[in-house]
Amino acid sequence: xxxxxxxxxxxxxxxxxxxxxxxxxxxxxxxxxxxxxxxxxxxxxxxxxxxxxxxxxxxxxxxxxxxxxxxxxxxxxxxxxxxxxxxxxxxxxxxxxxxxxxxxxxxxxxxxxxxxxxxxxxxxxxxxxxxxxxxxxxxxxxxxxxxxxxxxxxxxxxxxxxxxxxxxxxxxxxxxxxxxxxxxxxxxxxxxxxxxxxxxxxxxxxxxxxxxxxxxxxxxxxxxxxxxxxxxxxxxxxxxxxxxxxxxxxxxxxxxxxxxxxxxxxxxxxxxxxxxxxxxxxxxxxxxxxxxxxxxxxxxxxxxxxxxxxxxxxxxxxxxxxxxxxxxxxxxxxxxxxxxxxxxxxxxxxxxxxxxxxxxxxxxxxxxxxxxxxxxxxxxxxxxxxxxxxxxxxxxxxxxxxxxxxxxxxxxxxxxxxxxxxxxxxxxxxxxxxxxxxxxxxxxxxxxxxxxxxxxxxxxxxxxxxxxxxxxxxxxxx
Amino acid sequence: xxxxxxxxxxxxxxxxxxxxxxxxxxxxxxxxxxxxxxxxxxxxxxxxxxxxxxxxxxxxxxxxxxxxxxxxxxxxxxxxxxxxxxxxxxxxxxxxxxxxxxxxxxxxxxxxxxxxxxxxxxxxxxxxxxxxxxxxxxxxxxxxxxxxxxxxxxxxxxxxxxxxxxxxxxxxxxxxxxxxxxxxxxxxxxxxxxxxxxxxxxxxxxxxxxxxxxxxxxxxxxxxxxxxxxxxxxxxxxxxxxxxxxxxxxxx
Lengths: 478, 252
Ligand SMILES: Nc1ncnc2c1ncn2[C@@H]1O[C@H](COP(=O)(O)OP(=O)(O)OP(=O)(O)O)[C@@H](O)[C@H]1O
Ligand SMILES: [Mg+2]
What we know:
The complex is a heterodimer.
Chain A: H1 2-9, E1 23-25, H2 32-41, H3 46-60, E2 84-86, H4 100-108, E3 122-128, E4 131-135, H5 138-144, E5 147-150, H6 151-157, H7 159-165, H8 176-184, E6 189-193, E7 202-208, E8 219-224, E9 229-237, E10 244-247, E11 250-255, E12 260-267, E13 279-290, E14 296-303, E15 308-311, E16 314-317, E17 323-332, E18 337-346, E19 352-361, E20 366-375, E21 383-392, E22 398-407, E23 413-422, H9 425-433, H10 438-454, H11 459-469
Parallel strand pairs in A: 3-7, 6-8, 7-9, 8-11, 9-12, 10-13, 11-13, 12-14, 13-15, 13-16, 14-17, 15-18, 16-18, 17-19, 18-20, 19-21, 20-22, 21-23
Antiparallel strand pairs in A: 1-2, 3-4, 5-6
Helix pairs in contact in A: 2-3, 3-8, 6-7, 10-11
Chain B: E1 3-12, E2 15-25, E3 30-34, H1 41-49, E4 55-63, E5 66-67, H2 73-78, E6 81-84, E7 91-95, H3 96-110, H4 118-131, E8 142-143, H5 149-163, E9 167-171, H6 179-192, E10 198-202, E11 216-221, E12 224-229, H7 231-240, H8 242-247
Parallel strand pairs in B: 3-10, 3-11, 6-9, 9-10
Antiparallel strand pairs in B: 1-2, 1-4, 4-5, 7-8, 11-12
Helix pairs in contact in B: 5-6
The structure holds adenosine-5'-triphosphate and magnesium ion.
Residues 41-42, 86, 171-172 of chain B line the site of magnesium ion.
């Protein structure tokens, strides 16, 4: 019976199509010249070129870390294409110049970019390989005072904001892939919500890798000033290629006093085939800092794709009473490997963090939760609650939990719970006996298992997550 | 004939468990199956429901004129076979009412009827909840999670009342019930049992037979039904025990 469960999870990757779009790509390989070329292409100010070059110099001194609980062939950095952009370049604020083939790609993925078909109340920034090709609802957002554009555009239009915040949360020295990203990042999304503004709609970026052997190195920067609020969604897909592609992004969030940032991800990069051939290496550094008092950063993620995932969306809780949250569902099948979790670093007084992680493993996949909760000496009265649950489907997969707890303040409290369960024959038979077929049964069991996380997703994403996990959400998403 | 079991042999892996069971059940009848621990009663019940751990090695089961063995477990359910489990499983995160509505609607779909929306279903289930004297609060809780033993049994009867099966197989639904719960459960069974339905109860205790009148009582030992009779057989059994009764094989 468990092999039937695997068949069920084994549905084809619907986003796996490749489109012929005329692209201009750099030759593979990385040296100082490549970086200067990327920077020149974008007419970057000198501070940015210097940032890239320093990051590159630093990266050369680093070695790829190997502590991850995954086995994979290390990327060959000489074979990666570091820049690829559509030949037909979009004009600002207009889709007229965007290659229709690209618009078609997004349409096929269910993210129409045309004004008349756009998703209601969700503004979309579409990043295709290395560059942003379109951003919707820009005008409406501007009226509210919200800046939502590609990082390239932000560099041109708001260089002082970019200079102030870029690298302020994740310095280029942070880790191997953050250094690489800092050197070669090509584009990404930029969000700035000024003081007192509640962003009037959901913002979202949709990342698509299209060209074979291209690395995607995007950078996202979200700043919420005092008393501001934004909810941001991120989606990702890639065509099916039998070689691995590298996606090494950096995401930085800054929340000032009383500000709140809600960041949700549905990650469905191509995972490779049943034998583990191909798929995306998803090595991402995501971190937010709760700079001001009473600020809040909430990460929710549904991770279903990628051959190897290696990421820990984290919160630095500096402001007093600031709140960090991490809600995660990670599903691995076949040969997928995921090592994901979070870091909550408590610095301010009475800071609070919640971690809810649900790992589902099937096939011969490996699914690890790795999390750090750190209470620094100044974190008077800080509290953390963590819950890490794993569900196994079949008996050839693995689930692992690596919680690291570091408490340096005696008034801080840390609570950690963990459980492992298996979709059992008896549980399935109970559903069948009540007339519910196996597919619906598994959906309901998984959906029940992930309920606490689905509750945290914005409605639009909950629907996508449902489609992804093949889950009936009836009654389970509030 | 609603159910006709002929010379049924069943194994789990290499181990033979049922060794030639014969049973005939007509619509409108109530049957009780009694027998010592490990004699194969639950196995028989689960085989009727199509549990994948068991293989029918020989013999036949016909249900409403169909070869039951050929049907998948979920098809059997939708055609009116219901099993109240001896040990109902827990399903975290799935609410009791959501679970029952899904089950109910699957059956409606199979019958070509329209599905009930959550509000319509709510009306229906609230009536049924009264029948088994359950706190409606249980509808919002995860299926069987942290239910007491007796609450789980009541919940099985609630599901039976919702699904209104043609053939209800109750595996020790009376075990572990206090006297009030026993009355409630019996009431649920009696409400279901009509001219078009049949009930097969597995039980260890004669006491439920005071509330639910069986037409036949069967005794199973070592994978076979060794004696059949009326209610008197259950009373004799209570007095004499299995060993003595089983020794007088075939005398009904
Ligand atoms: N899946 C299985 N694999 C191996 N042996 C099994 C399996 N299921 C049942 N058995 C064995 O078959 C025999 C009959 O078990 P069953 O549960 O049907 O008994 P029972 O009559 O319901 O007993 P009780 O009155 O204790 O509930 C027991 O010896 C049991 O260990
Ligand atoms: Mg039993």
